[in-house]
Amino acid sequence: MKEKHDLTGQKFNDLVVVRFVGRNNSKTNTWECLCMCGKKTIVDSSSLRSGHTKSCGCRVSRVSTTHGFSTRRESIEQRKFYNTWRSMKKRTLLDSRSDIKNYKGRGIVVCKRWMKFENFKEDMWDSFNNHINKFGIKKTSIDRINNDGNYLKSNCKWSTPREQCQNRTNNRFYTLSGITKTQSEWARELGIKDNSLDDRINKLHWPLEKALTKCAFQSRLYIHNGERCTLKRLSVKYNIKLSTLWYRVNRQKLSLADALTKKIVNHKNGNN
Fold first, then answer.
1. Tell me: the pLDDT tens digits for 151-210?
2. Inside any domain, residue 1
3. In terms of domains, do 140 and 190 share one?
4. Quick one: 37 and 76 in the same domain?
5. Are residues 161 and 78 located together in one domain of the fold?
6. Cα(168)–Cα(194) distance, rounded to whole angstroms?
7. What is the number of structural domains in the chain?
8. Higher pLDDT residue, 3 or 85?
9. Which residues contact 137 (CB under 8 A, 6 or more apart)?
10. What DSSP string runs through 195-259?
């Protein structure tokens, strides 16, 4: 008994199909295959064609023996590092990925040296651990310095999620008073949502200076010690209520320096 598409003699990764065996309990065609290590194993058609089964099981042993980073017996850090390498290759090699336009479709490739895991480990393992020690494993992922460049040692580093967002191809940059930041960075500084700032600029068509200086609570940004700061940030830094600081600056018309250093003078109104 043979299925419509005979796989006999065909090679799938480390397996060569020897003969048709029959159907399993799921009514899927199964095949006897000879592995490159010399052992025989039974594999169903879908597992062969999809690449889900690549060997009789010896491949996992060979990989584990080589670098020890792919098994569950290893540390979380080692598994994440290995999976980073695997994902990097999949993004640039597979046509079936939904994000093909962002990687393979743009011509992004993994350098020849990094196609071998041991070389990737030699180049990036130490810096990976240093980044984890500083930011934690959840905030560590591989990032290309030049977003249009390839995966290679001179163009890759470990980044936090925020740094990753700043390096996206669809980022919008705005410059005000000689300071250039992404739209997300301006929004964080203003204390508003990213889409709110986008609405100001692209839907409401506010002048850029107004869009980038009108904060959520206070009406402007202030220069303090050479830095642009919101009243909210200053209130936290100097341990002053935001409403009190706003009252001093906008109602009492105090200079920022005086507003930040003024002592309690008006108990009736509850101001410090």
1. 999 999 999 887 777 666 556 777 877 877 777 777 777 777 778 788 888 888 888 777
2. no
3. no
4. no
5. yes
6. 15
7. 4
8. 85
9. 76, 77, 80
10. HHHHHHHHTS---HHHHTT--SSSSS-EEETTEEE-HHHHHHHTT--HHHHHHHHHTS---HHHH
Does the pLDDT value for residue 14 go beyond 80? Answer: yes
For 249-267, the pLDDT digits (tens) are 878 888 888 888 876 454 4
> Do 242 and 265 fall within a single domain?
yes
For 241, what's the count of Cα atoms within 13 Å in the CB-facing half-sphere? Answer: 9
- 228 in any annotated domain: yes
182 and 124 in a single domain? The answer is no
Specify whether 123 is located in the same domain as 189: no
Q: Token pair of 67, please?
A: 């670098």
In angstroms, the CA 160 to CA 165 distance is 9
Boundaries of domain holding 35: 11-56
* Distance from C-alpha of 20 to C-alpha of 114, rounded to nearest angstrom: 38
DSSP states along the chain: ---SS--TT-EETTEEEEEEEEE-TTS-EEEEEEETTS-EEEEEHHHHHHTS--SSSHHHHHHHHHHS-SSTTS-HHHHHHHHHHHHHHHHHH-SS-TTGGGTGGGT--B-GGGGSHHHHHHHHHHHHHHHHHHH-GGG-EEEESSTTS-BSGGGEEEE-HHHHHHT-TT--EEEETTEEEEHHHHHHHHTS-HHHHHHHHHTS---HHHHTT--SSSSS-EEETTEEE-HHHHHHHTT--HHHHHHHHHTS---HHHHHH----BTTTTB-
84 and 159 in one domain?
yes
Distance CA 179, CA 202 (A): 20
